[in-house]
C-alpha cells in the first residue's frame, strides 16, 4: 500500500480526492487541513485526518516525519483571487512559502510532490495554452502560483504540476462557490446577473481534476500536465448552458464585458488549455461541460439542496 498525503482536504478538490481514494486498496489516505475535518462523517473509515496548516514549517516537518508519505497531492492554497491581490503577505505565505516548506519535507522523506497550479499564470492574450506556453501572470494570485511552480522546477525532488482552470463541483461546507452553483442559485432567487462574454476558459469538473491527479500518481508521472475540461467557453456560455439545463429564466442573464467589473485583481481574458498531453500520456478523459452540469445536478438532488 502506498501512502498519500492530501493537503487542503476540506476544499473542493481535496474532498473529491478523498472520496475517490478512500476505498482504493492500493492507497492509505492521509487527509489533512487547517483545523478540523469538514469531510462527510460516513467516509471516516477510509482515511486518517491530520491537522496541517501548510504555512507552519515545523508542523509540516512533523507530519512528514510521522507519515512518511509516498505521494503528496498539494491542493491547499489561498484561492480567492481578489483577497490575494489585497493581502499579498498572506498570499505569499500560503501560495509560495508553504510550497518551499513542503519541498523541504519531501526531500527528507523521498516523497513525490504533485502540485496544483492554474491558467492564471498566463496573460490570457494567446490562449488556449499547452504545457509549453510562456507564463506572464496579470494578477498577484497567478504570480504566486507561478513562483511556486518555479520552486518545484528548481528542486531535486520528484515532482509533477497539474495545471487546471475554473473548477466547478459540489462538496460539503464549501469555502468558495463556483460558476454553476452561483448561476443556479441566483436565477432560482430571480436575481439578474451580469456575466462576461470576453473571457474564455476550459471549465473543469472537480471529479475530472481529481481523476487527473490520481492518474499522475498511479503512473508516477513527472513534469507539467494540463488537467482541465475540454470545452472552450465564455462564462456567459456557461451561464446560458446552466440555465438551459435547469430550465431557469435565461432573460435574467445579462451579457457584459469584463470592463464593467471593478475587481481588485485583473482576470486574464483568453486562457483555457490544450489537454492532448494528459489525454495521450495519462489516459485522461474529461467530461463535456454539459455532462458535468448533469453530474452536478444529480449531486445537488442527493444532497437535497
Ligand atoms: N477552484 C478553481 O477554480 C481553481 C483552483 N486551482 C488550484 O487548485 C487547487 C485546489 O483548489 P480548490 O479545491 O478549488 O480550492 P478550495 O478553495 O476549495 O480549497 C483550498 C483549500 O485549501 C485550504 N487551505 C488554505 N490555507 C491553508 C493552510 N494554510 N493550510 C492548510 N490548508 C489550507 C482551504 O481551507 P479552508 O477550507 O479551511 O478555507 C481549502 O480547504 C488550489 O491549489 C488552486 O490554486 C487552479 C485553477 C482553478
Ligand atoms: C462573480 C462573477 C463572475 N463572472 C465570471 C468571471 C469569471 O470568469 C467567472 C468566475 O468568477 P470568479 O470571480 O468566481 O472566479 P475567478 O477568481 O476568476 O476564478 C479563478 O479562480 C482561481 C482560483 C483560478 O485558479 C482560476 O482558474 C480561475 O477560474 O465568472 C461573471 O461573469 N460575473 C460575475 O458577477
From TrEMBL:
Enzyme class: oxidoreductase
Annotated ranges, domain RmlD-like substrate binding: 3-293
Keyword NADP: yes
Record has NADP as a keyword: yes
Enzyme Commission designation: 1.1.1.133
GO cellular component: cytosol
Name of the protein described by the UniProt record: dTDP-4-dehydrorhamnose reductase
Organism for this UniProt entry: Cecembia calidifontis
Amino acid at each position: 500500500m502506498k501512502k498519500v498525503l492530501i493537503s487542503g482536504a476540506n476544499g473542493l478538490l481535496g474532498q473529491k480526492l478523498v472520496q475517490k481514494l478512500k476505498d482504493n486498496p492500493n492507497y492509505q489516505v492521509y487527509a489533512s487541513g487547517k483545523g478540523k475535518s469538514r469531510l462527510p462523517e460516513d467516509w471516516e473509515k477510509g482515511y486518517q485526518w491530520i491537522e496541517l496548516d501548510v504555512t507552519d514549517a515545523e508542523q509540516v516537518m512533523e507530519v512528514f516525519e510521522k507519515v512518511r508519505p509516498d505521494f503528496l497531492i498539494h491542493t491547499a492554497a489561498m484561492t480567492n483571487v481578489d483577497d490575494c491581490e489585497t493581502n499579498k503577505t498572506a498570499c505569499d505565505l500560503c501560495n509560495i512559502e508553504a510550497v518551499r516548506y513542503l519541498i523541504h519535507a519531501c526531500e527528507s522523506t523521498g516523497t513525490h510532490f504533485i502540485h496544483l497550479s492554474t491558467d492564471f499564470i498566463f496573460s490570457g492574450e494567446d490562449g488556449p495554452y499547452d504545457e509549453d506556453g510562456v507564463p506572464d501572470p496579470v494578477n498577484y494570485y497567478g504570480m504566486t502560483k507561478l513562483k511556486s511552480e518555479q520552486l518545484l522546477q528548481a528542486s531535486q525532488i520528484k515532482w509533477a504540476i497539474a495545471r487546471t482552470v475554473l473548477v466547478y463541483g459540489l462538496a460539503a461546507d464549501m469555502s468558495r462557490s463556483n460558476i454553476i452553483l452561483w448561476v443556479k442559485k441566483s436565477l432560482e432567487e430571480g436575481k439578474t446577473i451580469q456575466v462576461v462574454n470576453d473571457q474564455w476558459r476550459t471549465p473543469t469538473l472537480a471529479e475530472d481534476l481529481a481523476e487527473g491527479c490520481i492518474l499522475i500518481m498511479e503512473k508516477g508521472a513527472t513534469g507539467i500536465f494540463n488537467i482541465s475540461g475540454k470545452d472552450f467557453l465564455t462564462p456567459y456560455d456557461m451561464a446560458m448552458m446552466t440555465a438551459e439545463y435547469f430550465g431557469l429564466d435565461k432573460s435574467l442573464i445579462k451579457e457584459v464585458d469584463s470592463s464593467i467589473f471593478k475587481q481588485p485583481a485583473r482576470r486574464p481574458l483568453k486562457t483555457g488549455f490544450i489537454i492532448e498531453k494528459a489525454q495521450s500520456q495519462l489516459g485522461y478523459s474529461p467530461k463535456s461541460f454539459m455532462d458535468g452540469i448533469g453530474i452536478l445536478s444529480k449531486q445537488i438532488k442527493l444532497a437535497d439542496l
